[in-house]
Design brief:
About 60% of the residues lie in helices and about 10% in strands. The chain is α/β, with parallel strands linked by helices. Helix 2 packs parallel to helix 3. The protein starts with 11 loop residues before the first strand and ends with a helix.
Length: about 210
Amino acid sequence: MNNTSVEIQPATILIVDDMPENLQLLRELLTAQGYVVRAAPNGERALTFAQATPPDLILLDIAMPDMDGYAVCAQLKADERTRDIPVIFLSALDALQDKVKAFTLGGVDYIAKPFQAKEVLARVNTHLTLRNLQKNLEQKNVQLQQEIDRRTQAEEELRTLNQQLHEANASKDKFFSIIAHDLRSPFTGLIGITEAIIENPDRYTKDQIHT
């Protein structure tokens, strides 16, 4: 018996930051944990990467030139291809209103810079786990809906067959009723004569009976 194993693909993480040293640090940290890492130095490049090959998670800086992290997140959430990708904001902006805005736009977490490596890894792992659970749930929901559709179709086919059987039985009963009526008519007179002969045998001659 051959044992087969399903190869688990490593998660892909997109890092978006305009500071090369931050990109390098995060790339090394995450790559060492077995993740596949892609880096984007600005928001426009990040959107291009995410739309072409959606990652499993995005680490997104806020304060970037041309297009800040808020605008990037808003466009990600507006695109059907990327709306479900978890976005963790990673920013030196630490005011309450910054965090509120990040969560309002659809971010799942917020890590303040300077960050701690263990914190980043813990939060990344948590949200990747949640994302995998969500994907599994979505897949099971799809399978459940497919099963419901199959059963609904089978029930509809069964109702159709039952209706056809009912109509066939009705036609059969009508047919036999007609046959019985047609057969009964000529035999009614014969039965009457036979009963008369049996009750009064002396009234009829042999020639009359044979006739």
